[in-house]
């Protein structure tokens, strides 16, 4: 029982709710894939929190952010919304939530290695990037304390010439889909930098605020 909602594991095939229909006239169900059932229960709890606290109106094919990934409600049976997730390149939605679980796990592990508490960005937030990010070039990123609609991330490559006007503000999901190699570092909290150069990663917190050090990428 979680917040008055029963969560059941059904034949090790699904995790489903009982009682959520009080809020949205449907129950939620997610297919168990390659992870332990506890991982899917955590996803269901996240959605229960959202529904109980926000009391949203849920409809067919509606999207919901799960930390730094995107899920979708699909009406597969009369009384169930099954959970689907964006696939790795954002071209479609697949049944289940293994990618979402993997993204959150990797982001959490990176932060744990640095003794940091994850600050997960979400799909509705923005990221500032330079030329070369989508093309897969080495990058340097720094995360500034920002309003709720911004992730705080500035991500640049050696293509950045110092002209602020050349930077572009894009949605977080564009970076998530284009640079899966970068995604796992994007829950690092405000005030930290990471440098990705020739397959090596350095994560640190500068002693004082400063401009991007392009020389690190050259």
Q: How would you briefly describe this protein structure?
A:
The protein is 22% helix and 31% strand. The chain contains five helices and 13 strands.
Tell me, briefly, the overall form: elongated
- Assign a percent range to the helix content: 10-25%
Radius of gyration: 19 Å
Overall strand count: 13
Biggest sheet architecture: 7 strands, mixed
Poorly predicted residue ranges: 213-218
The proportion of residues in beta strands is 25-35%
Count of helical stretches:
5
End-to-end separation in angstroms reads 54 Å
Order of helices and strands: EEHEHEEEEHEEEEHHEE
Q: Taking all residues together, what is the mean pLDDT?
A: 92
Find the structural class using helix and strand composition: alpha+beta
Explain this structure.
The strands form two sheets. Strands 1, 2, 3, 4, 5, 6 and 7 form a seven-stranded mixed β-sheet that branches. A six-stranded mixed β-sheet has the order 11-8-10-9-12-13. The radius of gyration is 19 Å and the shape is elongated. Helices cover 22% and strands 31% of the residues. Residues 213-218 have low confidence and may be disordered. It has helices spanning 21-24, 37-54, 98-113, 172-178, 180-183; strands at 6-10, 14-18, 27-31, 63-66, 69-77, 80-86, 93-95, 126-129, 139-143, 150-156, 168-171, 193-197, 200-204. Strand 6 and strand 7 form a beta hairpin. The protein is of the alpha+beta class and 218 residues long. It contains five helices and 13 strands.
What is the element layout, followed by pairings?
Blueprint: E1 6-10, E2 14-18, H1 21-24, E3 27-31, H2 37-54, E4 63-66, E5 69-77, E6 80-86, E7 93-95, H3 98-113, E8 126-129, E9 139-143, E10 150-156, E11 168-171, H4 172-178, H5 180-183, E12 193-197, E13 200-204
Parallel strand pairs: 3-6, 8-10
Antiparallel strand pairs: 1-2, 2-3, 4-5, 5-6, 6-7, 8-11, 9-10, 9-12, 12-13
């Amino acid at each position: 029982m979680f917040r008055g909602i029963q969560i059941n594991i059904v034949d090790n095939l699904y995790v489903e709710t009982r009682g959520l229909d009080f809020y949205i006239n449907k129950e939620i169900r997610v297919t168990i894939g390659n992870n332990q059932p506890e991982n899917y229960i955590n996803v269901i709890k996240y959605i229960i929190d959202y529904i109980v606290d926000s009391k949203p109106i849920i409809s067919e094919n509606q999207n919901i952010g799960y930390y730094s990934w995107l899920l979708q409600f699909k009406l597969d049976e009369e009384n169930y919304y099954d959970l689907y997730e964006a696939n790795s390149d954002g071209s479609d939605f697949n049944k289940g939530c293994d990618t979402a679980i993997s993204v959150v796990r990797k982001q959490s592990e990176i932060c744990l290695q640095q003794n940091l508490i994850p600050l997960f960005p979400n799909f509705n937030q923005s990221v500032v990037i330079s030329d070369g990010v989508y093309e897969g070039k080495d990058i340097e990123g720094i995360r500034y304390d920002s309003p709720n609609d911004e992730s705080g991330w500035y991500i640049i490559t050696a293509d950045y010439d110092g002209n602020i006007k050349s930077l572009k503000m894009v949605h977080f999901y564009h970076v998530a889909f284009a640079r899966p190699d970068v995604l796992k570092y994007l829950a690092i909290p405000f005030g930290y930098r990471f440098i990705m150069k020739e397959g090596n990663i350095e994560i640190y917190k500068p002693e004082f605020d400063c401009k991007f050090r392009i020389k690190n990428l050259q």
